[in-house]
Amino acid sequence: MIRRSGGLNLSTCGGLAAIVLWSATFAVARRLSEQVGPLAAGAAVYLFGALLCWLRLAWVRARRFQGGSARALEGSAPPRASSPDAVRRGPARKYLLGCGFLFVLYTTVIYLAVGLARDRDELLQVALINYLWPAATVLLSPLLLNRRAGWLLAVGTLLALAGVFMVMTQGDRVSWSSFWAHWRASPIPNSLALAGALAWALYSNLARRWSPPGSDGGIEWFMAATGLTLLALCGGANQPVSWNGRALTEAAFLGAITASAYALWDVAMRKGDLLLVAACSFFTPLLSTLVSCAYLRVAPGPRVWLGCALIVAGSLITWRSVGEPKEPRAEAGP
Fold first, then answer.
1. Cα four-point dihedral sign 310, 11, 195, 27
2. For residues 146 and 327, is the Cβ–Cβ distance under 8 A?
3. Are 10 and 214 in contact (CB under 8 A)?
4. What is the C-alpha radius of gyration for the chain, rounded to an integer number of angstroms?
5. Residue 334 pLDDT > 50, yes or no?
6. Residue 321: DSSP 8-state
7. CA dihedral 306, 14, 142, 217 (to 10 degrees)
8. Which among 266, 276, 277, 306 is placed 20 to 30 Å from 137, CA to CA?
9. pLDDT at site 328
10. Where are the domains of the chain?
């Protein structure tokens, strides 16, 4: 077994909080999509979330400015350059463009998958396919972050895939033919959910690789770009949109928790213990399924729970099979 190192710092705790917040997103997003459509729902959520992110950024910068002014009035010396918070660097260009593209891609395909699911039972299936991303994040870390990998990585990946296999064959005998029959019954939402899992796994690794130490993130830009992209797609689709008080409340609530979760996750991926946060994210499929069942009043079959358990176990095993980088990570360029 590979030995790991690392501590539970504030950035890592933020990533754990993001996991809890995300557990409610699929259920609320589905209910909102049923009222106004997936594109309009996503656009409203991410534009409102982007507004909250920009307000938070303005508040943080105002506090920094006030702190600097107070030190100047007191005649104290500025913080040393060696201090981690002494010099704040802007996001790297590769991080903004590459991770920004992956962020917009992920959120767009997931909202489309949620909206295109035939019913709420199929939503649970789409959600669990999406929750392959924790195992995929760890699976890609040896390649993208030069992590040390053990043989259990393959075992954990196969277990996570077996979980999806069990979910996809519910209500039928367990076989490849029934798996493909269920996949072909809804190929678009299933494929979109799988594409989203891979996109978020890439984002989580590349955010660490392309972000210079001590730099600010770009979550404000990513949220705004996502909202505008979904708004443009919504305008091009010419779908009727009917808002009411419940829809507005759900959009505001989902926008708030989405902005908070993404901001916390982005910091955790850049500054926290990536593998620990990715490992704890194995709780997300279980939490999300529980919340979805309660909020949407869905009663899943035993294979859904078995598939969820396999995905959880697979994600945990992949985390335990990957260790620290073979060499220190080089500082990302602009």
1. positive
2. yes
3. no
4. 21
5. no
6. T
7. 130
8. 306
9. 47
10. 10-72+88-325
